[in-house]
Amino acid sequence: MEKVQLREFHQARWNEPVIMEMGTPGERGILVPQAEAAVKSEVGDGVSVLGKVRRKSRPALPEVNQALVNRHYIRLSQENMGADNTLGISQGTCTLKYSPKVQEHVVSRHPGLAGVHPLQSEESMQGILKIYYETEQIMKEIGGMDRVSFLPASGGHAIYSNAQIISAYHKANGNSHKNEIITTLHSHPVDAAATSILGYRVITLMPDEKTGLPSLEEFKAALSDKTAGIFITNPEDTGIYNDQIDEFTKAAHDVGALCAYDQANANALLGIARAREAGFDLMHFNLHKTFSSPHGGGGPGCGALGCIEELAPYLPKPTVEFDGSKYRVDYDREQSIGHIKAFLGNFPVVVRAYMWCRTLGAEGLKQAAVISVLNNQYMTDEILEKVPGVSLHYSPEVRRMEQTRLSFDKLFEKTGGLGIDAVNARLVDYGISELWQSHHPYTVPEPFTPEPCDSYNKEDIDYYVEALKTVANECLENPEMVAQAPYKASRHVPNHVMGESFEVVASTWRQYVRRFKK
Amino acid sequence: MIINPVAGLGGRVGLKGSDGAEIQHQALELGGRSESFERTLQALRKLSQISDSLELFTYPGEMGEAAVREAGLNPVVLGAIQTGYTTPEDTVRAAEDMAARQVDLILFAGGDGTARNIYSAIGQSIPVLGIPAGVKMHSGVYAVNPEAAGQAIVQFLTNTLSETRETEVMDLDEEAYRQGRVSARLYGYMQVPANRKCIQNVKVRSQSESATLMGISQDVVNNMEPNRIYIIGPGTTTRSIMERLGLDNTLIGVDVVRNGELVASDASERRLWELIKDQPATVIVTAIGGQGHIFGRGNQQLSPRILKQLGRENIQIVATKDKLLAIPGKTLLVDTGDSQLNQSLSGFTKVVTGFMESTMCRVSA
Question: Which UniProt keywords apply (chain B) (predicted)?
Fold first, then answer.
């Protein structure tokens, strides 16, 4: 095989202050025009009507001109390692996948989509409602569910919505004693966090030392009449698939609990395995990851929350209904858990998912899943064979699904302290964004969880493995050099701030000024 | 920097430890070799990057000076020793001398015995870090390996956000161990740099321990019933419950609480027996970090007759998830001295790991 050549990389580096520190008093970008006389006569000056709601002082915005704002954000974007100029393989557990640019064009330029207002009449939105309705039919088929809602913003919000539905169901059936939720340690921690907000006691199953999966015996010991539901990610974030999952759901049903499937790692399953056949009553896909929208730190999120017929009355409102000739938005849902997002939720993400599914078709979806698994298996084998200091914990003989939790533990031991943090710092010198490590709690030492999805070709994966191998070798041969990395990036290595250190952390500008700029 | 030059002496020759002059002598005759010098060097080499800003105190010769100089560092040498024959008292004195100089951290090389000696000298007043060089290392004060010790120190001394956490000082009864019985004792707690990556268990990363303890203690206190007796076992996890109740506590002893009030402090087995004989009672214990014992280590007051009287349903275990994950096999251990009781306590159990949060764990005899 031809040797992989690492490309020369150098990130832009600007000595860029934060926007709040920029500008000159009196400087501004635009002057908002005065209201026209006709408008004024109708609504006044548009300000005095605010009355007491009007703020007493001007907002503390930086006073900057347009050109400066433009330069500022372009520079920041150059200092980033964005999805479009780097290999996202590092960003595992997010199933960050291919998002064709043509979809962006349609979503942002098509007048019928870009110009729509949520308060338009139903008659004028028939096309959009049709997209919702048809996307629901597609998602129903993929998940094996009877109804699907696109209102949750996915992730924790979808899990929370699932938990609300479980809660509403038990309440309606007089099961007030059901106050426990069971999840697994290698599911997303948000499965535990989001359900606990509703007042459930969360019981977490420990992974078996050898298999990395919770044992059925342990699960049965945790189940009781108090169990309201189970929340499980499968494959778990380790990449290991629990092939006893139907026995878990059966045991849960035996005690009257409902089963919710966190399909955050669904890339490997599209068109191959369905939540319904595994015995789940509820599930959600993250449309913005598994169904082709860029996963942009905190948004735009949109989930497809699916459930069985029995739970459909509790779905959030509104739903989109079709009577055979007309589409309508149904707000009149008595047992619904209510409004969880404005209007129809995050519309552009639904459109992207719709386009992606329609473009690929059923066979294409299945192919995307197969390629994800194949890519991952190839990448894992290559890493284990070529990158020094890496090991695979929990059932190394078992094939991983669409991502793999690996460990730089041996590298850490051999170098006396150079592990994932060091690799991360050095990896950006090769133009690759940081390794996604692991969700807490860390059950694997020095973890990293890459995920190639269906988005990358063999050359990409080979390049990625070569970069990892180069960095690991540098750690072994020239540890002092790696300890000072990165050299070609705008970033530096931050101090690790412990969770306890609230007093030294500022999460907003205002907090920063109050604490440190007195 | 304090080295116990005889640490690890007994390990290679199968003597399980190196406490006491006779054993040391025996070990040397059998060809035992001190592990601590080489291991200390490995750790100290990591310090070269901060040597300019480092003031390093040590003890003469084999107790530190030789290794420190070999590593290319320039120490201030305190005290005096009898070369070729060092004792636990030397370790104690060295720690006291360094405490008197108000050092930021005591780095030592040794095993559980050394940790115990240093604990007896300085308690919790100064953070410590152990370079693992002994035979027994049940205490949580050790770095995962010598290099990691060096790494952790550099971070601790250069990082403005340096924090410490408490960890167990444990030791085995060596005499019993040589006779085939494992009997460990919890001696106390020392402060170590809060660097979970380099210290004791690589598996666990920094997490907000204090926030987790707040959650655990709140959960336990919320569920306390009126008029029920609560026996609070030793440890920092259980101490958080006492702190939430606003009560004084015995860190390595057993306290008793009822209706939010302290009924007994550092209670003996007999006192506990009298208190619970005809009263509804619950015992709240935590696992020993790194090894997982919930009964039979550091809480021998909780005797078989007391545990039998309470019954399995009145035993509540509390621990952070980090602690559970750091336990080999994630299995909690019981060693009450009564094998039938051990069996009856075995199986899966729920451990309170946060507010409204439990984790399933296996208990094994």
Answer: Kinase, Transferase
My answer on whether B247 and B307 are in the same domain is yes
3-state secondary structure B172-221: ECHHHHHCCCCCEEEEEEEEEECCCCCECCCCCCCCCHHHHHHHHHHHHH
Q: What is the least distance, in Å, from the CA of B144 to any CA of chain A?
A: 9
Distance CA A291, CA A309 (A): 24
Among positive and negative, which fits the CA dihedral B172, B175, B176, B180? positive
Which residue of A203, A416, A442 is in closest CB contact with B148? A416
B199 beta partners? B143
Closest CB from A209, A417, A442 relative to B205? A442
Token pair in block for residue B327? 């336990």
Residue located via tokens 């038990």: A170
Residue in chain A nearest B320 by alpha carbon: A441
Would the CB atoms of A442 and B161 count as touching at under 8 Å?
A: no
User: Which chain B positions have a beta carbon within 8 Å of A181's beta carbon?
Assistant: none
Contact A267, A95 (CB under 8 A): yes
Chain A residue closest in CA terms to B158? A495
- B78 and B188 fall within a common domain: yes
Mean pLDDT of chain B: 85
Q: pLDDT digit string (tens) for B190-228?
A: 999 877 666 554 333 345 677 889 999 999 999 999 999
10 Å CB burial of residue B233 (0-12, 13-18, 19+) is buried
Which DSSP helix (H) or strand (E) runs through A451?
none
Mutation for A interface: B131, B203, B220, B349, most A CBs within 10 A? B203
- pLDDT for A184 beyond 70: yes
Contact yes or no for A417 and B357 at CB 8 A: no
CA distance B23 to A356: 74
Question: Is B347 an 8 Å CB contact of chain A?
Answer: yes
**Interchain proximity A442–B353, CB inside 8 Å:** no
Q: Say whether the ipTM exceeds 0.95.
A: no
Domain membership of residue B146 (yes or no) is yes
| pLDDT tens figures, B5-23 | 888 765 555 555 556 666 6
Is residue B215 domain-shared with residue B357, that is, in the same domain?
A: yes
- A501 band by pLDDT with thresholds 50, 70 and 90: low
Q: Which residue of B has its CA nearest to A501?
A: B161
- Total number of domains in chain B: 2
Mutate which: A198, A412, A444, vs B, most B CBs within 10 A: A412
pLDDT at A132: 97
B144 and B275 assigned to the same domain: no
Residues of chain B in contact with residue A407, where contact means CB-CB under 8 angstroms, are none
Residues A101-141 pLDDT 10s: 888 888 889 988 888 898 999 999 999 999 999 999 999 99
Q: Is residue B90 part of a domain?
A: yes
Backbone torsions φ then ψ of A266, nearest 5 degrees: -80, -5
The answer for B 325-344 residues in CB contact with A (under 8 A) is 325, 329-330
| Pair of tokens at residue A60 | 């503390």
Give the pLDDT band (50/70/90) at residue A44.
confident
Q: How far apart are CA B290 and CA B330, in angstroms?
A: 10
B210 inside 8 A of chain A by CB: yes
CB distance B10 to B17 below 8 Å: yes
Q: Say yes or no for a CB contact (<8 Å) between B206 and A205.
A: no
Å between B45 CA and nearest CA of chain A: 11
Q: Which CATH number is A111-115+124-357 given?
A: 3.40.640.10
Tell me the C-alpha distance between B41 and B69, whole Å: 9
Do B157 and B279 lie in a common domain? no
Q: Do A206 and B150 touch (CB under 8 A)?
A: no
This prediction has a pTM of 0.83
